[in-house]
Structure prediction request, 256 residues.
Amino acid sequence: MKRMVQLVGVGVMLMFALPLAGIVLLSLSPTYGLDIFSTLHPSLRWWEELLGDSSWPVALLSSAVIGCGSASIALVLTVPAALAWRLEGSIASRNALLLAGASLTVPPIVLAVGLYQAVMRFGLFDTFPGLVLSHLAFTVPLSAVILGVRFRGTQTELYSAARSLGAGRVAAALRWLSATQRATLAGCFAASVLMSMSEVTVAIYVTDTSVPTIARRALAGVTRDIKPTGFAALAAWVMLLSLLAFPVARKMNRAR
Prediction:
């Protein structure tokens, strides 16, 4: 039975890894088209073109600022609710987290249409604040799910001890949070930033040309000149950055 579980695990890993490997190989193609066999003579042509295009760093910086802003607001909104549920047993906070997490099942296109109507009504269309607030529709549910799962699996003796020694609820909760959940908060923030940066549907619906995001830059590239190998290089860079984040999160978790 154990061997069967291991085989299934390996199969699942291969199912996810093989398409990613194909993207990396495609990004090393010296040709213009979708020719995997041309990677027998790998080239960094598309990587160099990606790094040499000045519009991509601007779009990356804008997306990073928007992602960090949205992730920060999401943590401010979800951390108190998660603390109230885990440390004080608040049923209202638990239900709020469940409701927020359940919104992840809503198709992005449905959220995008509603957000478009909202930003147009309040005059936030094609603005940084409008895009930051729109991405809360994704970063808040993601934070609610991550914090809910991680907080539930962590013991609360430290909080109880701090309370018994006379510490207030806020002080005891912050001490428990700092001692046990630093890696969780860092991982939640990073995941929210990456989700915000990779969300294409909302970026297309609530922006036009004033906010240069990765999604908008990619859309412009597709409409002007389709370069699948160039986008493969971009995807490879995103995967590389994501993989580099895992050792950092693991080290923080061990340090905890």
The mean pLDDT is 78. Residues 22 and 103 are 32 Å apart (CA to CA). The chain has one domain: 54-255.
